[in-house]
Specification:
302 residues, mainly alpha, 15 helices, EmrE-like, EamA_dom
């Protein structure tokens, strides 16, 4: 198995786990409060991951450029928007379905990467991306027993629009991250990726923490009061972001995001065993279609 595939699978697992914990925090914190904990508490853990990697493998990189800093800031802002949109989409349709809507990100990221970064994908990979997204949408809409008219109406509901907008923001985040990694001088792409994680999370803490201080000052106290749960979110966020950033450094954005759709499988497991939501037989069919698409994506990289 290629290193980037293993790292991407880990990223999907950590992200699902973190999102599930964030959903639980919604009962203790506001939308922005639940979102900011992943950055605030993620910075110390990100520094630990960066430091551990450097102690084991060594390496160095050059002075960050203004363009690199701007790309990290843009990636951080897009991730904030994407996270808030994703969390706000959970209420109307549930945890698993809210996440599924955001999985249109794979197609969005693929198209943007081809146009902006000039990435080239095989026909097999494109077919795999289409099939995997089809599996997600079956899981989300057709798998719920909706008629064609109801499916059309569902795609214009607030939950669907927020989920798809979330996917667009995450797609832009991935593009900015890959571009930033290439902009930072240095030979070790993984070391550069881990540095970008810490820097981006620090910027996000200032951006969303500042917003929270201005609009919801009382939530800052709550964020620190819930440190036991929030620290777990931060640790998983740092681990997940580190894996995503490293994945984007090693492979094309389109492929990483396509394989990362296995997150929906982890989401189904978490929604069933962690959040107590019931699953249907059609959920399994949708998951199998998704897996078949991911397999095609991987076959297309050979």
């Amino acid at each position: 198995m290629s290193l980037w595939v293993l790292i991407t699978l880990c990223a999907a697992l950590f992200q699902t786990w973190r999102t599930a914990l964030q959903q639980r925090l919604r009962g203790q914190l506001s939308l922005n409060g639940a979102a900011v904990v992943r950055y605030l508490y993620g910075v110390p853990f990100g520094l630990m991951i960066l430091g551990t990697y450097w102690l084991v493998f060594g390496g160095s990189f050059g002075t960050p450029t203004l363009w690199f800093l701007a790309l990290c800031a843009m990636a951080g802002l897009m991730q904030i928007f994407g996270t808030n949109l994703l969390i706000s989409s959970f209420g109307p349709r549930g945890f698993a379905v809210g996440t599924a809507y955001s999985k249109t990100e794979a197609v969005q990221a693929s198209i943007i990467a081809v146009v902006v970064l000039g990435e080239v994908l095989s026909l097999t990979s494109w077919a795999g991306i289409a099939i995997s997204v089809g599996g997600v949408m079956y899981l989300t809409l057709a798998g719920r027993g909706l008629s064609p008219a109801e499916i059309l109406r569902a795609t214009t509901q607030p939950a669907a629009l927020r989920g798809m907008s979330s996917g667009f923001c995450f797609a832009l985040t991935a593009i900015c991250i890959r571009t930033a990694n290439a902009e930072l001088p240095g030979e070790d792409v993984l070391l550069k990726a881990l540095f970008a994680v810490v820097l981006t999370n620090a910027m996000q803490t200032v951006m969303q923490g500042g917003w929270l201080l201005w609009r919801e000052p009382g939530q800052l106290t709550a964020v620190f009061r819930t440190w036991r749960d929030s620290a777990k979110v931060g640790a998983l966020s740092a681990a997940g972001s580190s894996c995503w950033f490293m994945g984007f450094a090693l492979a094309p954005v389109a492929l990483v995001r396509a394989v990362g759709q296995v997150e929906i499988l982890f989401t189904l497991l978490f929604s069933r065993f962690f959040l107590g939501e019931r699953l249907k037989g059609k959920d399994v069919l949708g998951a199998l279609i998704l897996v078949a698409g991911v397999v095609l994506v991987l076959l297309g990289t050979r």
